[in-house]
Write a structure and sequence with these properties.
By secondary structure, the protein is mostly beta strands. The protein has three helices and 21 strands.
């Protein structure tokens, strides 16, 4: 069942264009999938999820140089029933404070990320309990798909607070907010602020501290500069309408994130 889910999810990545590397801050992030059946092997930029399916005990998986791969992430899982893998950093690099990491139990995994100085451990089934790669890849899918909300004209009123009502069970960073206005008559004008917080009734944190005005039916308004772009796990979203000129039929907000 897990294999089938992997095939479907990575087929989705390819459909969305995530089979290739995309810019991610100072380093690219790739959504590649690789299974190894023989060892030793050395990881490259062309993969993110790595399945180890060799029968050898103590097979070696080499990591690339940490200082050449800032931001690079790998999710490494042992899927063979009898094999094991020794994850070995380049030269004097470390994984956390360790020179090597060994996965010796089927379905054990480690998720690591380069901070340019060492590989930091984001999750480790040996210490945190195995949730498996299925949940990890589901999380990737959720993060690469935009969050979309629609607000109808009855809720677009000055000084109104409108809950967009998703509960976000993971943290992410906003890249772009796209706003699309539905046409009625005249030239639209809606000014709003987007907020997040653990509770809709609380004050919340503004994603952008200055309100954003949207004035076009024919083109999408793209917002790419933010005061608070990192959204913590457990957040809800809402907007406050600060000014309305000509009322659009509806307003659709898409949050594109990673």
């Amino acid at each position: 069942m897990k294999k089938i889910l992997f095939i479907l999810l990575f087929g989705l990545f390819a459909t969305l264009g995530y089979s290739q590397c995309a810019s991610d801050s100072m380093k690219v992030k790739c959504f590649g999938f690789k299974t190894y059946t023989s060892q030793p092997q050395t990881l490259s930029d062309s993969m993110m999820y790595v399945a180890i399916n060799w029968s050898d005990a103590g097979g070696v998986l080499n990591l690339p140089a940490v200082n050449a791969n800032k931001g690079r992430e790998y999710f490494i899982e042992l899927i063979h029933a009898t094999g094991s893998v020794v994850i070995t950093p380049n030269g004097s690099d470390k994984i956390g404070d360790s020179s090597t990491i060994t996965l010796a139990t089927k379905d054990s995994y480690i998720h690591i990320k380069s901070n340019n100085a060492k590989w930091i451990v984001l999750s480790d089934s040996r210490t945190s309990g195995s949730v498996g790669a299925t949940e990890y890849i589901q999380d990737i899918v959720q993060k690469i798909l935009p969050i979309t909300f629609s607000v109808d004209s009855s809720k677009i009123t000055t000084n109104l607070k409108v809950s967009l009502d998703p509960y976000v069970g993971y943290s992410f960073t906003i890249d772009t907010i796209a706003v699309i206005l539905g046409q009625m008559t005249g030239s639209p004008s809606v000014t709003f602020k987007l907020w997040y917080g653990a509770d809709f009734s609380a004050a919340g944190t503004a994603v952008i501290t200055s309100p954003s005005e949207c004035t076009s039916y024919s083109t999408t308004t793209l917002i790419t500069s933010f005061n608070n772009a990192v959204i913590p796990k457990g957040s809800n979203f809402w907007i406050t309408i600060t000014a309305v000129g000509t009322l659009p039929s509806n307003m659709t907000i898409k949050i594109i994130r990673h």
